[in-house]
Amino acid sequence: MPAETPAAAWQDGWLKSARAVPSPNHGPRPKDARIDLLVLHSISLPPGRYGGPEIEQLFCNQLDWDAHPYFAGLRGLEVSSHFLIRRDGALLQFVSCDDRAWHAGRSCWRGRDNCNDDSIGIELEGLEGWSFAPAQYQALALLCQALARRYAIAHVAGHEHVAPGRKADPGPGFDWARLREALRWPQECFPSATLEQRNPAVDGSDPGQSVPQGAGSAAAMQ
Ligand SMILES: [Zn+2]
Q1: CATH code given to domain 6-190
Q2: Which stretches within the chain are classed as H helix?
Q3: Closest by alpha carbon to 47, among 74, 25, 78?
Q4: How much is the average pLDDT of 105-129?
Q5: DSSP state of 25
Q6: pTM of the complete model
Q7: For the region Disordered, what residue ranges are annotated (predicted)?
Q8: Which residues surround ligand 1, an ion (CB under 5 A)?
């Protein structure tokens, strides 16, 4: 099948191949925003449980805060991300990339503050410190490539890099070398801390059902 042209793949900042789940948690970008950064995150609600509707509910302000003890710490939180990649590689989009999603919070990267202004947020369903699924790397690489055809993407970083000391996702279980190899983008696009040798401990681990209670930071978003 011939590849779609960039113009045909997008409509008003929405990637047509993603399932659209519009979130109210967004605003306009600054008028002169140069969208050149992808910020990677991890999330699961409750932490370590995959496949449920809770992430979509959180991003759409529909989460029942009383449904799980962990959710109490998220009460009232208004957050979003442009994209979510499920464990099976399914791609969801919550905010137009032309708009400003609320994923990075207080942050700084490539010498610029407030990364929400000019970045695109990508959540990977997962748990800080644990590994991610092969289907997620495949979907992420395709998404990064689609974004780079539409926007002048020059940087990819984790939330842990743009908000060090405050955030730790996606964490050491994310295999940066694998993403770099899939994309074949210059090393300068990636955080220098991720340029060391591939960590063999990253491969093969999986949270399964043995996730400790309270793993992952409360209010892990923003
Ligand atoms: Zn994050």
Answers
A1: 3.40.80.10
A2: 6-9, 54-59, 134-150, 159-162, 176-183
A3: 74
A4: 97
A5: -
A6: 0.87
A7: 194-222
A8: 41, 159, 169
